[in-house]
Design goal:
alpha+beta; 15% strand; 3 helices; two-stranded antiparallel sheet; single chain; 2 strands
Length: 92
């Protein structure tokens, strides 16, 4: 083998390794993920730019909103079934 062929092979191997390193960095780079669950409700989020604390705050706020809507829905269901007054007093 000539020196130029060895140099070409070596350069090709270096390029291949650099490409692999770049792919690995892209796969693992800065992706924060979070999942919050409460009863049967779940909020999931992921971001490559947001910090974990920011994701946690966003998810907490969203979980709070979803929980409130779920409770309102359950409350309305109780009213429709006529159970509200039996459970919370008043009425009839």
């Amino acid at each position: 083998m000539s020196e130029s062929q060895n140099a070409d092979d070596l350069e090709e191997q270096v390029d291949e390794l650099q490409s692999k390193v770049e792919r690995l960095e892209e796969q693992s780079q800065g992706r924060n993920q979070i999942e919050i669950s409460s009863h049967d409700l779940t909020v999931q989020a992921s971001s490559e730019e947001a910090e974990m604390e920011e994701l946690m705050q966003l998810c907490s706020e969203e979980m709070e909103n979803i929980s409130k809507r779920a409770l309102v829905g359950e409350y309305q269901e109780l009213e429709q079934e006529g159970l509200h007054s039996q459970l919370f007093g008043g009425g009839d």
